[in-house]
Amino acid sequence: MTEFVAGFLHLESQELVEYLLRETGHQQRGQIHPRDLLDYLRLQYLRFDFMTELPKEARDTFVGTTPRAMISFHDRLVATDVSLNESRTRFSVLHEVAHYILPQHQHTLYVCDKKGMSFGTHLQFEQEANRVAADLLFLGDRFDQESSSRPISALTVRTLAFQFGASFEATARRIAERSYRDCMLVCFSNTSNAILESPSNLQWTVHYCIPSASFANRYFQKLTSGRVPEDVCSALCVDGRDLERSETIEVTISVRMEVQPVRFHAEFFYNQYNVFCFLTPVEA
Question: Which residues contact 157 (CB under 8 A, 6 or more apart)?
Fold first, then answer.
C-alpha cells in the first residue's frame, strides 16, 4: 500500500488576529475590548497582588523583575497584577491571549514578568506574544490606515494613543515600525545613577532605535551614540508639559555612501519616563 503523509493547516499569526477581531465584532469598533476576546475564548479574568497571592516558589523565580500577568491553560484563567495601570493591564491581557491562540505556545502555565513583556526581550515566545498583542491592540491594519494619513509627529502619537487605548511609547513604536515613509524613532533613557530633582538635569542617551523599512534601507538602522541637547531637555522635562508640546531642531548625521552629512528634522517629546525623537529627512 502506498504511504501518504498528511499535511496540516498552518495559520499565520496575522490570520489568527484577523479571525479573532472579526469574530468578536471589532471591525466596527475604534478600540479593542479585551473582555470580549476573553468571553469569546471562554477565559476567566482576575486581578490580584501577585507578590502576595502567588505561591512562594513562584515568587522566588522573579528575582530583579516584577510579574505582571499569567495564564493557566488548565483553569482557563488570565490574571494581571493590581499594580498595573489601565494601558499596561490592557496590553498584558492581550499578551496572555496571544499565548493562548498561538498553537506552539500551548503549555500548562505562563507567568510573564516585566522583563519578558518588554520591547527588548530575547525570549522567542515572549517576542511572539508581544507582536500578536500589539496587532490586537492596534486592530490589525486599522492603525496603519490611520497613521499613514497623518504627519509623523508627537501630536499624532498622542492622538492615536488615546484613540486606540495604548501607551504613548507603544504608539510611537508602531508608527515607526509600520510607516512606509522615511522615519526613525529614537528612545533616550537616563543612564545616570545620580538622584536629581529635575529630569532636565539628567543625561539622556540612546536606548533603542526603530527605523521604518525605507529609512533603514536608505540611511541607517540605528544610532551608535547621541544625547538629547541640554536646551531641549530644559524645555521638555517640565512637570505637566503635554506630550505634543515637542521641540524640533535640525541635525546632521553622517550616513554611509554619502559624501556630505545628511540633514534631518529631529522632533523631541517626553512621556515623563523617557525622551523620544522622530528623525525625518530634510527634503532637498
Answer: 168, 171, 172, 175, 243, 244, 269
